[in-house]
Amino acid sequence: MTYVPPKPSVSCPPVVFSHRAAVPASELLQSFDAPAPGSIGALQWIKDRGVCAFDVDCFTTIDKVLVVGHPTELAERLHLANSPDALSLEQIRDVDGGMTPTILDFLCAAAEVTPACPPSDAAEVSQRTPLRILIEPKGASASLFTIETLAAAVRESGFGDKEVGVWVSEPALADAAAATGVLTPLLPVKGSSWPPKYFQTHWAAVGPPVAHPNLGEISALVRHSSSGRGGAAVLTWVVDEPDQLQRAIVVADAAGVISNEPFTILANTREVCGR
């Protein structure tokens, strides 16, 4: 493919996030012993190949432990009869061999990984967005309990302020996340009509709206501020093809891209951005 140089932008190159901290499907064909998605082993495996930012899901077990993983994916992979959020952490680990980490375990491991990660342009990228971890609570886990648990885990892990974002749709949870001082609340938006009325009403955002029929799904990252001041940037997901990356950078001015094929996209990002 012949790349068209993007317009000048401080967001080039964007941060590349590994979707669900999962080993890419293209790599699974070559590795039959790849670690499970969201596991500490997967995090290290992905980091060793040059990607050090992660977008993961979380849910709360029946014994009130916040763990990393997508409940549906986990149930299918482990052939569970019930949803994993109806099980205790011990029951889940009995089935998966101890691979499912708590959110604290994951963040502590990620905090050790991210400072030592390439590329050499990391300092430039960090000027655009400090985010390195994005977390989406699933189902009933989108709660004040989860926000408080995440904030405590971030503080204990050693991550800096605003390096960990949490996807929330409710204004009350956004306010709670912002009030922690360590979490960045993120508003998920799908479709081409951006920003919606909800966004304009409940989020203090600045920056141009994004509306492009060929962009695909987009997500708005917003630093919420009850004082009326805020900043907005755009993350796009999922970006797995070079043409999607081109649109994310040129059309959406994306500060970050979330990908199921992060190694390929990282290489393409450098090419698109002329680095």
What does this structure look like?
Strands 1, 2, 3, 4, 5, 6, 7, 8 and 9 form a 9-stranded mixed sheet that branches. The relative contact order is 0.17. The chain is globular, with a radius of gyration of 18 Å. The chain has helices at residues 25-28, 40-47, 71-78, 89-96, 103-113, 122-128, 144-157, 171-179, 197-202, 242-250, 262-272; strands at residues 15-19, 53-60, 66-68, 133-137, 164-167, 183-186, 218-223, 231-237, 256-259. It has 275 residues and is an alpha/beta fold.
SSE topology:
Elements: E1 15-19, H1 25-28, H2 40-47, E2 53-60, E3 66-68, H3 71-78, H4 89-96, H5 103-113, H6 122-128, E4 133-137, H7 144-157, E5 164-167, H8 171-179, E6 183-186, H9 197-202, E7 218-223, E8 231-237, H10 242-250, E9 256-259, H11 262-272
Parallel strand pairs: 1-2, 1-9, 2-4, 4-5, 5-6, 8-9
Antiparallel strand pairs: 2-3, 7-8
Helix pairs in contact: 2-5, 5-7
Task: Name the features.
275 residues; alpha/beta; nine-stranded mixed sheet; 11 helices; disordered N terminus
Write a short abstract of this structure.
The chain contains eleven helices and nine strands. It is α/β, with parallel strands linked by helices.
Residue-averaged pLDDT:
78
As residue ranges, the low-confidence spans are 1-8, 119-123, 191-217, 222-230
Beta percentage is 15-25%
Query: What is the alpha-carbon Rg in Å?
Result: 18 Å
Order of helices and strands: EHHEEHHHHEHEHEHEEHEH
